[in-house]
Automatic annotation (TrEMBL):
GO terms for biological process: lipopolysaccharide biosynthetic process. One of its GO terms (cellular component) is membrane. Keywords: Acyltransferase, Membrane, Transferase, Transmembrane, Transmembrane helix. This is Acyltransferase 3. It comes from Paraburkholderia caribensis MBA4.
Length: 403
């Protein structure tokens, strides 16, 4: 690839923006709890939870593009495992502070507004927090959904996908250590095994699905090959063709899946088809040739959304319930909410979401990412041997020194 390993690819950030926008739009009917005919009509024809699968494919590509390159160049087992621990340290700094902060905020709000239960019960929110910390939230929310145990899960449902990713990235370096160049065959096998399996929303197969992530990893591996550049979709350099391609891919991403709102499931294995569409978008974006959005103003907006998509993903649901709580406090108790409040709720919601996201990015994400890079570099460049100091202890000390 022309881009240095680990450098930002703007087209990938644009895809992150589409992914989080799909997720937000798919959930926004919770904000307009009195009912919105347009949103209910959308649910009859489209399933927007597929934004998560696009996130998965992006994540697999971005992580593998940097990590596998580092592991391939690691000389000897000690340097290999130092690279692995450095990767895990970067993820701890990148993911855990924001993740833990906002699930803790939900828990605190649940205590403050315990009479209304708008932010869940303390017991269920604590259960959420425990499973988020232990990186098993996908199993937690699956258990609640299939057993109809609504009171046992709180408001941290979006965290399920973070747990799945962390499980995958705990296993990926170990798989590479064992398989090395044969890792691609494991990824191919994982895709083939899963892709035709029916996986309805909140089924067990749905909460452990990794086909989109594996496809992202395969794209990263393929991008280092000689024929990668030969397959660049240069026909997308024509503006109208690229616009049509993007529109088609986004339509398929929304039109393929089933949902709980009466949408027809085109094929039983639609989740696997969504993974393929997500991979096609990521493959196109991997060339970083500005194939998706060319208008400078619009692209700057999408880049802002994309670079802050992690916080947007975690905060968007909470911001909806904060908006509802604010308006219920501002108006008389006898107020009947309806369509006349749509604009007011929307403006309030966007103000809260954008403000919280930007504050999180500036004061939590960006600074801790930088500190994570320093801690990871210290781990990777340390000359102490495994006998002098176990790698796990060294990793912990690196984090403590930067805290």
């Amino acid at each position: 690839m022309n881009d240095p390993q680990g450098s930002r690819i703007d087209d990938i950030e644009v895809l992150r923006a589409f992914a989080v926008l799909y997720t937000i739009i798919g959930h926004v009917k919770s904000l307009f709890f009195w009912g919105n005919d347009t949103l209910y009509t959308v649910d009859q024809y489209f399933g927007l939870w597929t934004g998560v699968d696009l996130f998965f494919a992006i994540s697999g590509f971005v992580i593998a593009r940097d990590l596998l390159h580092r592991l391939e160049n690691a000389d000897g087992d000690e340097k290999f495992w130092r690279s692995v621990f450095a990767f895990w340290i970067r993820r701890v700094y990148r993911i855990w502070p924001t993740s833990w902060l906002w699930v803790l905020v939900i828990t605190i709000l649940g205590v403050v507004f315990h009479k209304s239960h708008m932010f869940g019960h303390l017991t269920s929110n604590l259960a959420d927090f425990v499973t988020v910390v232990m990186q098993v939230a996908n199993f937690h929310f699956w258990h609640c959904q299939v057993n109809h145990l609504a009171n046992e899960c709180g408001g941290a449902a979006p965290w399920w996908s973070l747990s799945l990713e962390e499980q995958f990235y705990l296993a990926l370096p170990i798989a590479f250590f064992v398989l090395r160049k044969n890792l691609k065959y494991l990824m191919i096998a994982a895709v083939i095994v899963q892709i035709f399996i029916p996986r309805t929303v909140w089924s067990f197969g749905w909460v452990i699905r990794t086909d989109a992530i594996c496809l992202g990893v395969l794209i990263a591996i393929f991008s280092a090959s000689h024929i990668y550049r030969l397959l660049e979709p240069t026909f997308l350099k024509k503006r109208w063709i690229s616009a049509a391609f993007l529109a088609l891919m986004l339509f398929l991403l929304a039109g393929l899946p089933s949902n709980w709102d009466g949408k027809i499931n085109p094929v039983p294995f639609s989740t696997g088809m969504v993974a393929l569409v997500s991979a096609a978008l990521v493959f196109t974006a991997s060339f970083n040739q500005n194939y998706f959005i060319r208008n400078r103003v619009l692209k700057s907006i999408f880049l802002w959304i994309g670079t802050r998509s992690f916080a947007l993903y975690l905060i968007h649901g909470l911001a909806m319930f904060v908006t509802i709580a604010i308006w219920r406090h501002l108006v008389p108790l006898t107020t009947q909410f309806g369509g006349q409040y749509t604009l007011r709720f929307l403006v309030t919601y966007l103000a809260i979401l954008i403000s919280a996201t930007e504050l999180n990015f500036r004061f939590i994400e960006a600074p801790l990412r930088a500190r994570g890079r320093v801690a990871a570099r210290r781990m990777q460049n340390s000359h102490r041997t495994c006998i002098d100091e176990p790698l796990a202890l060294s990793a912990v000390r690196s984090i403590k020194e930067d805290a």
